[in-house]
Design goal:
Elements: H1 7-24, H2 35-59, H3 87-103, H4 109-145
């Protein structure tokens, strides 16, 4: 797999892009009661989901490193992985959604869409190809039972 940008860097890039969008287009910013609480809850939920997902890899004694999925020694399909094949990336999306709500700028919905598209095309699909090669039919059966995102 020829990944060029690690997922955490992609997350940070989108978060910074959201700030730039908010800074450049403040006229679109909105606020609502409970905005900061909702934002914080989503961000924290994403952080917790990502942490639980990584710990699932650690418990299975395999690498959570997305830069080289061919080094995976075990196919992790328990815990959060029963509901989504990519809980780490879903956690990042929840965190970014929290950031978008914090800024209150609806233009940042585009940044969320960009994140999902980019992660799917340039991170998840190459990972899936590598995992198919590594785990064959077991991975195919898993893909038929569990969706890519949610």
């Amino acid at each position: 797999m020829k990944l060029k940008i690690p997922p955490l860097i992609q997350f940070l890039f989108i978060a910074i892009a959201m700030w730039v969008v908010d800074w450049q287009f403040p006229q679109f910013a909105m606020s609502f009661a409970g905005q900061r609480a909702a934002s914080s809850a989503l961000f924290l939920s994403g952080l917790i989901m990502g942490s639980i997902a990584v710990s699932g890899f650690r418990r299975a004694d395999t690498t959570p490193n997305p830069l080289d999925p061919s080094k995976a020694s075990t196919l992790v399909i328990s815990g959060l992985y029963k509901a989504t094949r990519n809980p780490m990336y879903l956690g990042m999306l929840l965190g970014l959604t929290g950031i978008a709500i914090w800024f209150g700028n609806p233009l940042n919905i585009g940044m969320l869409i960009l994140f999902v598209w980019y992660m799917t095309e340039f991170q998840i699909k190459p990972e899936e190809e590598s995992l198919r090669e590594k785990f064959g039919g077991d991975y195919e059966a898993y893909c038929k039972k569990v969706r890519r995102w949610i």
